[in-house]
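We were asked to recover a plausible sequence for a given structure. The inputs and outputs are reproduced exactly as logged, with field labels preserved.

PROBLEM: sequence recovery
POSITIONS: 959
GIVEN STRUCTURE:
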């Protein structure tokens, strides 16, 4: 290959600096190309990354010796590859060690990997050209240019980034050139580098770039590595004049559309397992800004956007800080995984936090502090994106034809505001700041007009947050404006989210600041605490507008009947405000709400209600999901805690919003059915009196419903069925289950076979679960065997009830879901039933068969949940409640049930509540004599056995 005359093998950047092509290098430009011959290592607190001259001399010497010994091209390659591989491995180790010593020095890390990659790429080309596929004299007349493109061209290289190469020829590739390229690629592949490559002429580049924005973007960041420099310069010139010029608007729109599509695929920037590269607020967003700026303005570094007026100096510093942080995270993520990975999964969050030097602080885990920093940086990236996009929109409007601009409708705005490029702007900043309440009125006008806020207005607000002081917080007019944002416009989340991002919300309610961008390190919550709060308020607003009437009939009916909206919105705003401290967040949050609510203008009674709602905001969901709501005692106790229908209504709506605000897949029909049932029963108890809410009354109603559902049954058969069951059976199941069991028991009695088994599977889509009913002759350990059978088929049990009859049978009902949290498809039910029969028939021993399946997924192993076992003899009239709070894993329910069976515990019901990695299994039990577990010695013995089973299972799961 023909080298550039002045610099053989030089790695040059088109901006005149080595390894400073991208924004990261703004602060530390490298030496000029004239001072070096070949790639130059960066200054690191470690030995030189690689001795380029020594490496190449050794490689050429080995190649020459092999050739003289009669070796062919394949043998030369085999001889050279170990030398290159060792140099690459050693270079990577040096960079990784230096990065470990300075874990936030992302710029050095990125440029060092670029330098090492350049060394390998150019060295392989030199070896290929000289020893493996020399060019003929004719081929040398059409010299190649080796060009780095994409992220590699930009010089942004993480430890395992792709190596994107463009082999550029003046005219059609000759056979010799293709052979050279092939030989070089084989060397790179032998080094285990992930190479993306293309072989094109300038004409090809122009044609393909015109049709494909991805190709166009990759060439935008071209960087000449070796070969014909004049050809690379010609390509860059033609791209600029023939492809880029005049298409700025087209390119910008394409990149912004690409960004929107990417965000919709990846999710919001507040998702708790973000994609560092592609997610909202990630590196790709920063790169997109740089691409557009480079395309339009021809900049070669983000710092150049400051004199152009796109960013202010402090905004550029935010850009640089965010980019450095995100690149540090990405670098550690690659090194921790040992491969190219961009998803910051839970297990990797712990590892990266440790690598970056985070430590536990004031009761918070290091990983939570790290992720709060991550989300703050992602938010900063979002702010920069809005500023940049607004500038582009302004330029786009100016480029529109005159008639379009004349007839474009401009919304009317109130005095003090103007519309600039379709955004709400401030007419006179000085006058605006003379009344500090305008810092709130701006968001009110944004909601009223429906306009987005202009970035200059946002800049003015963030620069003057100090004006929001105690006097303003207690100003009745400020209170009125803020409450108006919540109550008057129908979309309060829009204002709250923007206020939160700009710091206004924390300035006006300082108690909110600790939860901004706060990561909840668990698998249950999908958002940060502040975003979860805003999502909850958004759910309430949608319900009030009638958008969720069909899916949330009870909550929607409550709202249409009238509630105190001020109380409800403030309670939602404060319900998680106490998180992140050592104290129970409900108790602490209630105290904080007692301070916040009066400042927002609520009267004494309203403040009392807000405080109560925050203190007990988990009461209804815990009762519905962790207790048997068919037990009259559960409803009576809950009704006593609530006290009034008014509070029940408010708590019900708040609970629905809270669960729906956790994440996009948290709410389901099962939870909806539980909450509806608890609400209706509690309302009935509060309105009609507790004395009517007894087992006897409910039993009479249930038997009456069964007789009506079986009109064709003889009276004698109905009499047998209604008399064979104890009272809990009648109040614990719906009439549809009573009908199923009545038919199953009649069939069992007709067979008179002690080993007979009846199974009925019914996909109950209304509850997002499959109901599995079992009927058989009673014998010890049935509940345990049933849970084992269900565990073997991969079923997740969400509720379970087991009842013995007076004539020696047992009826058990389980509500189960598949691994995706849905009912089993009808076509899977026959196989499901077959596996259950095999297990219950003794063909499969569950404890043995479950061992190889009883494993935690890698991303789930970062979570630890302290095990707690508690006994409650007051929550039920006839059972002891054993509540086991522990780390969820496959087979846990079976292990607990088997342990209790071995200890001669009779299990009547099991209620399973799962919160990500945490599970709360509540068992309604009696001892072998039908009595409660009152003796503390018996409780201690049983607790020790349960803990032992949990520990043994956890050990198996982690191996």
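RECOVERED SEQUENCE:
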């Amino acid at each position: 290959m023909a080298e550039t005359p002045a610099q053989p093998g030089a790695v040059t950047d088109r901006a005149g600096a080595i390894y400073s092509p991208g924004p990261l290098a703004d602060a530390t430009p490298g030496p000029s190309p004239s001072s070096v011959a070949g790639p130059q290592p960066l200054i690191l607190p470690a030995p030189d990354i690689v001795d380029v001259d020594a490496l190449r001399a050794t490689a050429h010497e080995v190649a020459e010796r092999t050739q003289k010994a009669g070796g062919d091209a394949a043998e030369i390659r085999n001889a050279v590859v170990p030398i290159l591989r060792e140099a690459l491995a050693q270079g990577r180790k040096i960079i990784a060690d230096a990065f470990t010593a300075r874990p936030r020095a992302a710029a050095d890390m990125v440029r060092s990997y670029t330098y090492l990659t350049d060394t390998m790429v150019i060295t392989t080309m030199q070896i290929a050209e000289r020893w493996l596929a020399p060019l003929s004299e004719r081929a040398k007349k059409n010299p190649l240019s080796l060009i780095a493109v994409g992220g590699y061209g930009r010089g942004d290289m993480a430890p395992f980034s792709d190596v994107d190469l463009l082999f550029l020829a003046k005219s059609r590739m000759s056979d010799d050139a293709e052979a050279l390229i092939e030989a070089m690629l084989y060397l790179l592949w032998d080094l285990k580098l992930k190479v993306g490559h293309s072989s094109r002429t300038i004409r090809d580049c122009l044609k393909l770039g015109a049709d494909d924005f991805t190709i166009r973007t990759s060439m935008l960041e071209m960087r000449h590595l070796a070969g014909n420099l004049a050809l690379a310069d010609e390509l860059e010139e033609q791209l600029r004049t023939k492809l880029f010029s005049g298409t700025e608007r087209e390119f910008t729109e394409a990149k912004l559309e690409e960004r929107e599509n990417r965000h919709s695929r990846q999710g919001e920037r507040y998702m708790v397992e973000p994609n560092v590269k592609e997610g909202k607020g990630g590196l790709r967003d920063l790169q997109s800004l740089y691409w557009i700026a480079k395309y339009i303005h021809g900049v070669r570094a983000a710092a150049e956007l400051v004199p152009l007026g796109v960013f202010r100096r402090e905004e550029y510093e935010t850009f640089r800080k965010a980019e450095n942080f995100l690149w540090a995270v990405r670098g550690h993520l690659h090194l921790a995984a040992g491969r190219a990975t961009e998803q910051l999964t839970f297990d990797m969050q712990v590892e990266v936090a440790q690598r970056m030097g985070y430590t536990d602080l004031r009761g918070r885990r290091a990983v939570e502090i790290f992720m709060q920093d991550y989300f703050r940086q992602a938010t900063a990236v979002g702010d920069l994106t809005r500023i940049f996009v607004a500038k582009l929109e302004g330029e786009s409007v100016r480029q529109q034809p005159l008639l379009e601009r004349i007839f474009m409708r401009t919304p009317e705005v109130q005095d003090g505001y103007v519309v600039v490029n379709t955004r709400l702007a401030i007419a006179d900043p000085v006058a605006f700041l003379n009344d500090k309440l305008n810092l709130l009125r701006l968001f009110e006008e944004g909601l009223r007009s429906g306009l987005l806020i202009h970035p200059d207005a946002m800049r003015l607000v963030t620069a003057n947050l100090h004006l929001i002081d105690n006097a303003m917080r207690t100003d009745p007019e400020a209170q009125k404006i803020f409450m108006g944002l919540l109550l008057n416009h129908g979309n309060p989340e829009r204002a709250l989210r923007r206020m939160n991002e700009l710091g206004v919300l924390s300035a006006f309610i300082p108690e909110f600041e600790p939860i901004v961008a706060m990561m909840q390190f668990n698998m249950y919550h999908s958002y940060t605490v502040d975003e979860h709060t805003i999502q909850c308020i958004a759910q309430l607003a949608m319900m009030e507008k009638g958008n969720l009437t069909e899916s949330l009939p009870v909550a929607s009916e409550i709202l249409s009947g009238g509630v105190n909206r001020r109380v409800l919105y403030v309670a939602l705003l404060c319900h998680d405000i106490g998180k992140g401290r050592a104290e129970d967040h409900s108790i602490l949050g209630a105290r904080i709400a007692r301070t916040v609510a009066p400042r927002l203008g609520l009267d004494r009674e309203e403040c009392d209600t807000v405080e109560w709602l925050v203190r007990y905001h988990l009461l209804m969901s815990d009762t519905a999901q962790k207790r048997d709501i068919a037990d009259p005692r559960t409803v009576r106790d809950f009704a006593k805690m609530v006290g009034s229908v008014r509070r029940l209504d408010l708590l019900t709506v708040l609970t629905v919003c809270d669960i729906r605000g956790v994440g996009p897949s948290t709410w389901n029909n099962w939870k909806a059915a539980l909450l509806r049932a608890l609400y209706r029963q509690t309302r009935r108890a509060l309105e009609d009196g507790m004395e009517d809410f007894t087992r006897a009354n409910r039993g009479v109603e249930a038997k009456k419903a069964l007789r009506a559902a079986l009109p064709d049954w003889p009276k004698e058969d109905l009499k047998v069925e209604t008399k064979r069951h104890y009272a809990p059976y009648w109040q614990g199941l719906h009439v549809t289950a009573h009908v199923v069991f009545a038919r199953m028991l009649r069939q069992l009695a007709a067979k008179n076979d002690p080993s007979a088994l009846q199974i009925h599977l019914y996909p109950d889509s209304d509850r997002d679960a499959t109901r599995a009913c079992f009927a058989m002759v009673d014998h010890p350990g049935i509940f345990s065997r049933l849970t084992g059978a269900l565990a073997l088929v991969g079923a997740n049990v969400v509720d379970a009830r087991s009842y013995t009859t007076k004539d020696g049978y047992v009826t058990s009902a389980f509500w189960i879901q598949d691994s995706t949290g849905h009912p089993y498809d009808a076509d899977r039910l026959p196989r499901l039933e077959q596996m259950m029969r095999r297990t219950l028939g003794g063909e499969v021993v569950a404890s043995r068969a479950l061992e190889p399946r009883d494993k935690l997924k890698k991303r789930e192993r970062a979570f630890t949940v302290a095990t707690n076992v508690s006994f409650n003899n007051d929550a039920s009239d006839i059972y002891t409640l054993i509540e086991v709070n522990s780390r969820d894993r496959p087979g846990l329910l079976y292990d607990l049930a088997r342990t209790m069976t071995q200890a001669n515990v009779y299990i009547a019901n099991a209620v399973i509540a799962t919160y990500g990695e945490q599970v709360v299994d509540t068992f309604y039990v009696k001892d072998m004599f039908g009595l409660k577990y009152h003796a503390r010695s018996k409780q201690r013995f049983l607790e020790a056995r349960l803990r032992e089973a949990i520990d043994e299972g956890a050990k198996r799961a982690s191996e």
